[in-house]
Design goal:
The chain is α/β, with parallel strands linked by helices and 275 residues long. It contains 8 helices and 8 strands. The chain is 29% helix and 16% strand.
């Protein structure tokens, strides 16, 4: 978009008021998304945001672009279909750690593997907020603060960055909602990257995980520059405690995009369903 006046983040916000709990990290994700879109000056008609189910997946209602609120765990499947049919669109996908790594885990693996040109941001608070404190795939095995898991989940936590790398994602980053400007910069880089970009957003849940308020004292930037070597990236990810932020891995590998798709008009589709 060519414009003489720099766009403001509010240009990409709707009039719908977010209903997240006070102090929720997702507010900062909304801020980071709109800042990234404003920086890139992307026409709203050329951007689509797809989500699944959960607190995080309310995001499309708050961003003034095309939006689709899908079913639980299927956001990446919907987004892949959209990108296949409309490759000119900038496709953003939003979800949470439960939606993305549990019921949507299989779709996550194959979205990484296909390496279609879209950006997936997962707001990770290590809990299902909408189900009142249920342990999620990223919850620590000894977290026993929930009535739903009084003895803790008892199973190892899902490592999103490691799984993304092993599955073939070509861009892997981790940001923190306590640094919305830093998260916005990561999203700009993710959107500009040709291929599947995965951004894990550490987003504290102040309602069911109040101890996560301490994350602001724990997170720190990665000490090393991002690598394009998957072996080196794997070593760094496994050696990290999950609290380092920044771009971990970026590689230029072939982007998959279906060819020779037949464009069908809506009226043609309607005639096919006539009885």
């Amino acid at each position: 978009m060519s414009t003489d006046t720099p766009l403001k983040p509010k240009f990409y916000k709707t009039e719908v008021k977010p209903v997240w709990c006070p102090g929720c990290g997702h507010f900062a994700v909304l801020s980071a998304v709109t800042k990234a879109l404003a920086y890139l000056a992307l026409p709203r008609k050329d951007v689509a945001m797809v989500s699944g189910i959960g607190c995080s997946s309310r995001l499309p209602a708050y961003v003034s672009v095309y939006g689709f609120h899908g079913v639980h765990g299927r956001a990446l499947a919907v987004a892949s279909g959209l990108k296949a049919a409309r490759p000119e669109l900038t496709v953003l996908v939003a979800g949470g750690d439960g939606d993305g790594f549990s019921i949507g885990g299989n779709h996550f693996l194959h979205a990484c593997r296909r390496n279609m040109d879209m950006t997936y941001i997962v707001m990770d608070n290590e809990v299902y907020g909408m189900t009142k404190g249920q342990a999620s795939p990223t919850t620590a095995p000894d977290w026993a603060e929930s009535k739903l898991t009084p003895h803790g989940p008892g199973v190892p936590s899902f490592n999103p960055a490691a799984i993304a790398l092993a599955s073939g994602a070509s861009f892997i980053a981790r940001g923190f909602t306590g640094d919305p400007n830093g998260l916005a910069k990561l999203l700009v880089a993710a959107i500009e990257h040709p291929g599947f970009s995965f951004v894990q957003g550490l987003s504290p849940c102040t309602t069911y995980r109040p101890e996560q308020k301490e994350w602001k004292n724990i997170v720190r930037p990665f000490e090393l520059e991002p690598t394009a070597d998957p072996v080196e990236a794997a070593h760094r990810i496994q050696a990290d405690d999950g609290m380092s932020t920044g771009l971990l891995y970026q590689s230029r590998i072939p982007v998959w995009q279906p060819e020779n798709l037949v464009s069908t008009q809506v009226d043609q589709l309607e005639r096919g369903f006539q009885v």
